[in-house]
Structures are given as C-alpha cells and as structure tokens.
Amino acid sequence: MDKKILERASYDLKNEELEQAIADYTASNNDVRKLEGLIKIFRESQVLVPVAFPKQVDIKVLQKMLRGEPLKEGESFPLFPVTMSDSKGNKFAPAFTSRDKVVETKDFPYMIPVPADQVIKNALNEKMNLNGVLLNPQTGGFVFRKQAFLTDFSKIPADAQKGQVKKVSREEFVILARNSVEKNQIPRMLFEQKAEFIRRLEDEREEFMRELYSRPYGDKVPSPYTAEDFSVMPLDIDEETTAVCIELPGKHVIPHIALSAYIVWNPKTEEIYYYMIEKGQAGESDVLCNITPDGKHQELMTAPPVGSELSAVLDLIREEKEEAE
Predict the structure, then answer these.
(1) Per residue in 122-159, pLDDT tens?
(2) How far apart are the C-alpha atoms of 252 and 8, rounded to whole Å?
(3) Are residues 258 and 248 in contact, defined by beta-carbon separation less than 8 angstroms?
(4) Are strands 132-135 and 91-95 parallel, antiparallel or unpaired?
(5) DSSP readout, 195-207?
(6) Residue 184 DSSP code
(7) FRET label pair with 175: which of 63, 127, 210, 268, CA 20 to 30 Å apart?
(8) At what angle do helices 32-43 and 116-124 cross, to 10 degrees?
(9) Residue 171 half-sphere exposure, CB side, CA atoms within 13 Å?
C-alpha cells in the first residue's frame, strides 16, 4: 500500500485546550471538577485514531477516507480499531491529541481523525471488551477508565477526589510498548510482508529484532533493548519448511509478555505462522499462544518443556493441516 497516504493534512490536528486540561488535572491532585472539565473538553475534541483496513480496498477510496473527505454511497468499507494492552492484559483504545504526540508512525501506519466521542463509544461497547481510552500512549499517556465516562459528576461532593485518569509511568509504558510490538506490530508486518520479513530476519537477526522493539520509543525516548537482548536462530527444516526461533529479552517480563517466538514459513506456498511462549500468571505454567493472520490472539496449550517448543509448534501446524484436509 502506498505509504504516501500517510502524509496528509489530517495529522495537523491541534488540541491545545485538551492538552492544557490534562496538565491542569494532573497538577490538581485528581480534583474531581478538573476531571469533569477534562472529560467535557475531550468529548468535544477530534483526535487521531489508529485503524486497520481490509486487505482488498480501493486505494482511491482509502485516500479519500484518510483525508476526511465524504464518501459516495457504496464506497465505504469497515474499519478495524487497533487496541493496546497493559501489563495486566487490560485492553484500551489508543488515541492521539496531535501529530506531535505520535513518536513513531510505523507502529500505527494508518490513522484517521475522528470525534473523541466515537472513541468513547468504542470504549463503552461491551463487545469490544475494552477498559477505557489510552490517550497519547507513546509520550507518557493518560488512561481514561470507562467509569470516568459513566460518572454523574453532579452527584459527587465538591470536595471529593475521584481519580479516573492516571498518567502512565515509564515502567507501564515499557510494558505497553513491548506488548504492542509482540502482539500487533510483528504479526502485522509478518503476515503482510512474508518473504521480505523472513529475509530481513535471517540477514539482520538480532539487530532487526532490536529495531522492531525500539520503534515505539522513536528518536526522543531511549529504548531499553540492545541487540544482545535477543537471540535469533533460523533453521531450514526441509524444502517446504523454514523456522526461526527467537529468544526475547529477559527483562520487563510479566504475565502475558512473550518469552520466545517461533515463526514457521513455507517458501513454496507462502504459508506463514507466528507462535509465542507467554509468561503465565503467578504460580501458573507458561502458555503456548499464536496470532492468526486476521489478528486473533489464541492461547493454545501449556508451554512444552524447554527445548521442545519448536517441535510442539510444528506438531500443531501439522495437525491443523490434517484437520483442514
């Protein structure tokens, strides 16, 4: 898809009033009246929202949509909102107040300006199973919990403190960024680029992984990862199977964070698979998971013993093919 569509005027949103309201609320020690004013301003604002599109779309229609131009009857197609997860597995709808708050656009290649009230509606949609809105996630963002949008502030005493918005700490941001890379960025690139992604992974190995994990930090925020934090091992199993085993950084590992990843590629059919061993909850076993080409995250089974992870992955792929036949 033509990356020039990213260079559009819709990125030039200005939300000085909203950003000032966030700063005022932060400085007020969670003053409930400041929160009420902040949410009111947020509801009336436009924000940038990352989205995904179907693979087969009319580029001209897509460009019109990204520029915010009206579409003719029958031209529209569904948009798929992108979500982010925190260290506890809570999911949020990300949004940005301005272009300056997007540190690295490669993490969110497609964005559209939408009314913030629509973002709130998505957060409150029970089918989406979200915990709220994550505003400016790449630059020390704020979490708007769902309850904040449901609260009747007129019934809260004037001296009450009700913190429904919180600043994301550096540690939380690191977890959000890593989770986004492992569950969104890498599988999206993998399924879109296929052979090109495999080529770079085999040629650049640990340096390529360092680059991927550093993207959410941009040029202004230092990444905590170096190439030495990764280990990449490509294996030619047979003429129809290439596997790449990736050991991931041992730091910033909490439940649901990946410990290792396994990519299996058939160069003849271009079939490609993405599996991960994820850290289990305290006192529980680690879990073998995968992400499907349509972005679905699945917990498959208890992680196999160390050293037999790839064999387990290959067995699952074989069983999947046999069932399909």
Answers:
(1) 888 877 888 888 888 877 678 888 777 877 666 555 54
(2) 36
(3) yes
(4) parallel
(5) HHHHHHHHHHTHH
(6) I
(7) 127
(8) 110
(9) 6
List the structure tokens of 15. 């939300």
pLDDT, tens only, 70-126: 777 766 666 666 788 776 777 888 888 887 777 665 566 677 778 888 888 888 887
DSSP assignment, residue 4? G
Helices (H), the chain: 16-27, 32-43, 59-66, 116-124, 146-150, 170-180, 186-193, 195-204, 206-214, 309-324
Task: Assess contact for 13 and 47: CB atoms under 8 A.
Answer: yes
Rounded to the nearest angstrom, the gap between the alpha carbon of residue 165 and the centroid of all alpha carbons in its chain is: 20
Task: Taking the CA atoms of 286, 288, 293 and 296 in sequence, report the sign of the dihedral they define.
Answer: negative
- Is the CB of residue 9 less than 8 Å from the CB of residue 67? yes
Q: How many CA atoms lie within 13 A of 62 on its CB side?
A: 18
Q: pLDDT tens digits, residue range 37-79?
A: 888 888 888 888 887 766 666 777 767 766 667 777 766 666 6
CB within 8 Å of 89: residues ≥ 6 apart:
255, 256
Cα first-last separation, the chain: 33
- Whole-angstrom Cα distance, residue 234 to residue 210? 16
User: How far is the C-alpha of 315 from the C-alpha of 323, rounded, in Å?
Assistant: 12
Cross-strand pairs, 47: 114
Percentages helix, strand, coil for the chain (3-state, rounded to 5) are 40, 25, 35
Task: State the Cα–Cα distance between residues 279 and 146, nearest whole angstrom.
Answer: 27
Burial 159-197 (b: 16+ CB within 10 A, else e): eeebebbeebeeebbbbbbbbbbbbbbbbbbbbeeeeeb
The closest of 177, 158, 142, 160 to 42, measured between CA atoms, is 142
Instruction: Give the C-alpha separation, 246 to 207, whole Å.
Output: 12
- Helix, strand, or coil (residue 194): coil
